[in-house]
Amino acid sequence: MNAIRRVLSAVALFALLVPNAAHAVSMMDPFNVPPAMDAGTAKVGDGIAYADGPRHKLDVYAPEQRGEPAPVVFFIYGGGWSRGDRADYQFVGRALASRGFVTVIADYRLVPEVRYPDFLYDSAGALRWVQDNIANYGGDPKRLFLAGHSAGAYNAVMLSLDPTFLAEFGVTMPILGVAALSGPYDFYPFEYHEVKEAFGYAPNPEGTQPVNLISANAPPMYLATGTSDPIVRMQNTERFADQLRARGVWVTTQYYEGFGHMEPVIAMGALWRWRMPVLDDMVGFFQRFGAFPNGAYVAIAPDEPEMLPDSVMPTDEIVRQLNAMFQQIED
Q: Is the pTM higher than 0.90?
């Protein structure tokens, strides 16, 4: 209970400070204050360069207690391919580390500095760093999983379906599974400004769509979405899942009733985990495909915390505003 009160106090302080805060303050900050993140985890790599340039840096999270090499999750955040920062997703890195994974979160260049496919090449370059270096941080490069949210879910899926991106950087690690939250996979023709800016210059627009690149060699996939997502509607996940199954690819789908676009990724963190079991659903999927071959993963169901009034703990309003920042990707 004391820990919960510390979280609530930290969020309340954030709410008071935001109106006068500098531009560096992020709306994601309440989910990244230390009391709101998982204990027993550590940031073991901070701002490591995987290539030249300010957007080519990554962070590494791991359990504090490490012994045998651990499975690795490479998580790609979203933001419509035009915004996002690895620091906003510390809570995801620590959440997965709390479940025994070494987790890598890398920045990548954004629109309008770059457009498709450059942001995918950036993530492929970061994966080459993982291949060459993750063993030094306690990770096992032979047990690699990709994960992502929104535009990051698209990026993760594309890296697993189109071999040219990884081949460009000599990445040969097997991808054992992909976990994709709230992702767009079938959104051509490009109807919305944000999507046109990212993909409208592609010489082969149909080739940018994951739904058109599925083969029997695709890794198993976990696709999750909120049923009330107004940005990438759940039908996008349904269509992609149907095509994966038609080609013999293992796919697990999870639909979180009544939740929107940002909620599934926010619920990975300790502060919102009681709202939906997305973290344990994801980790259970990873376990099915070899994350922990020497032991079973045990899900941990959190209790709902004692809540303060919304005026003191405005996390629902923060999530509403985060959802409002996104343009629609597909109908």
A: no
